[in-house]
Amino acid sequence: MNYIHVEHRGSVAILTISRPKALNALNTELLQEFSTALDSLGEARALVITGAGEKAFVAGADIAEMRDFRSVEAVDFAARGQRTLEKLEALAIPTIAAVNGFALGGGCELALACDLILCSPQAVFGLPEVSLGVIPGFGGTQRLVRRIGSHRARELIFTGRRVKAEEAVAIGLALRQEADVLSAALALGEQIAANGPVAVRLAKRAVLDGDGADLRSGQLAERNLFGLCFATADQKEGMGAFLERRKAIFQGQ
Ligand code: CAA
Fold it and tell me: How is domain 197-243 classified at the CATH fold level?
């Protein structure tokens, strides 16, 4: 792969987006590699995504590639980006964006498709698409609204205003600011990975199934997934270990 590197640290996979010449901007080839990389995470129990270099997480979709698009090509490009981020969002294991710099346009949209967003003090978020004469195309108008609420999202989408780390945390766009964001994301991944892996995956499934559903349907999904946990060895181990006052050793089945 040219632009995507995956490294495993224990049970946590780290996916690095590396296209330094364009501040890690997302072009078609990079999106294809990203999608392929999501299929090959093996036994990882959490995924951390970050950008290579000091300056950027991802500075957006590739403006040079998009400039001469006809409408139909733009629709195809947006569909590719949306499919890729839907795949990321639906990944069975929890995902953490370690935002180490600019997360603009498609970069902000990529972070929004992750379960959790941590950011460095240098992080800058934003959906500047309207300043380029277009609108967000990789899910930004949908996921930003869901993440920070419609009122705040509309302001950022209509103005294209950039948001620094402190404000991103204050409005709930990022979970918290960390001086060493990659280490913090890894530590968070390890904390997640120490739990029953099947339970973590089913908990994520329950959250995703409830997204946009009414309370009754969401709770129905939740109790069925709760029931499914009782078919696992991890449930016997987790509850047994608690009652025997020892640390659980989960096999992930
Ligand atoms: N696409 C293509 N190339 C990009 C890029 C992008 N999104 N962002 C940066 N680059 C390139 C620059 O063209 C420049 O290349 P050259 O050295 O060959 O000229 C290189 O990366 C470094 O960038 P700058 O010189 O601009 O760096 P800077 O420090 O002065 O500014 C920045 C950094 C504020 C992030 C600025 O690069 C910038 O504003 N980038 C564009 C951000 C943006 O508008 N993103 C949204 C894209 S549209 C989108 O994403 C649509 C969608 O929803 C699908």
Answer: Lyase 2-enoyl-coa Hydratase; Chain  A, domain 2 (1.10.12)
Fold of the CATH domain 4-193:
2-enoyl-CoA Hydratase; Chain A, domain 1 (3.90.226)
Model confidence pTM above 0.85: yes
Catalytic machinery residues: 109, 129
Q: Which of 63, 84, 127, 162 is the best mutation target for the ligand 1 pocket, counting ligand atoms within 8 Å of the beta carbon and taking the most?
A: 63
- Residue 253 pLDDT level (bands cut at 50, 70, 90): confident
d(CA 178, CA 175): 10
Over residues 122-150, the pLDDT tens digits come to 999 999 999 999 999 999 999 999 999 99
- The residues, ordered by sequence, that sit 6+ positions from 114 with a Cβ below 8 Å of its Cβ are 49, 88, 89, 95, 96, 97
Q: How far, in whole angstroms, is CA 221 from its chain's centroid?
A: 23
